[in-house]
Amino acid sequence: MSIGTEMYRKTLLTVAGNKAVENLSIKYGKKLAGKFIAGNTLEEALEEIRVLNNKGIMATLDHLGEGITHLREAALYRDEYVRLVEGIARQGADSNVSLKPTQMGLALDPDEGYRNIRAVATQAKLNNLFVRIDMEDSPFTQATLDIVRRLHSEGLDNTGTVLQAYLHRTVEDTRDMIREGIRLRLVKGAYKEPASVAYQNTSEVIDQFKTMIRNHLDQGVYTAVASHDDHIISWTKQYAKDRGISPDAFEFQMLYGLRMSEQERLAREGYRIRCYVPYGTMWYPYYTRRLAEKPANLWMVLKNMFR
Questions:
Q1: Which of 29, 69, 93, 198 is the most exposed place for a label (fewest CB within 10 A)?
Q2: Is 189 annotated as a binding residue?
Q3: Per the annotation, does 289 bind a ligand?
Q4: Is 175 one of the annotated active-site residues of the chain?
């Protein structure tokens, strides 16, 4: 990533955080956001997963929502996730579940938030499904790790979380999670973070990302590498090949609506590939993070405006 791309990302996230920009985007941008969203309803999303599965692509299903303001919203999200779990099981879909702690109430009432997450994880375990507790921005990092540890201590080992390569603390967190047997999705990180907690230089983020992947593969821990970066994907494939590590020992993860032909190609090559499939109406925060990842994403959306 060039300096210009880094500036683009920081600028777009700053602009997107402006309330007036958010209101205009929500009013006029829903159709454009549809490129990255599998639909408004669970039924629409499950149909998209069926199509992906038929192409050899696994999924993880996410009902969009974060940063709620009332606990009654958290209860609604909890109930939708229980329905989501049942929908995956009923369809026999090859899909995990992804949820965000703040949509379950973490920021409003940590105990209630935990109970909501636990209810989803419990239902998922009854249906032999895995739940990924997504990682949000740095104020919630420790709380999220604590939630997953507590779930494991209560027998809900069908849960895991996400670690972000741009945080200074992440290599140590990676070692701890591996030692504790907690499954991880490894990512670069998509939130705007200060230099006090996160690397600002792309090369440092890439180096730490590779260290995280290496630590997993070298210790025989199943590894989920979430990236659209050709360099990271090629490096992971070559590292595994050089050390005789089976393609079944790791998976690549990409986002719905981005590089779908590449996802199909990886599946044809015999790699495990999982698509992050979001649905719902609370799309704005997710959408802006996708646009901020690289200028090509914004360019793609702008081109679609005139089709």
A1: 69
A2: yes
A3: yes
A4: no
Global pTM? 0.84
Q: Which member of 9, 185, 272, 274 is catalytic?
A: 185
- The DSSP annotation for the chain comes to --HHHHHHHHHHHHHHTSHHHHHHHHHH-HHHHTTT---SSHHHHHHHHHHHHHTT-EEEEEE---S-SSHHHHHHHHHHHHHHHHHHHHHT--EEEEE-GGGGTTTT-HHHHHHHHHHHHHHHHHTT--EEE---SGGGHHHHHHHHHHHHHTT--SEEEEEETTBTTHHHHHHHHHHTT-EEEEE---S---TTTB--SHHHHHHHHHHHHHHHHHTT--EEEE---HHHHHHHHHHHHHTT--GGGEEEEEETTSSHHHHHHHHHTT-EEEEEEEESS--HHHHHHHHHH-HHHHHHHHHHHT-
pLDDT (0 to 100) of residue 290: 57
Q: Write down the pLDDT at residue 300.
A: 45
Is 37-282 CATH 3.40.190.10? no
25 is known to lie in a ligand binding site: no
Tens digits of residue pLDDT in 112-138: 999 999 999 999 999 999 999 999 999
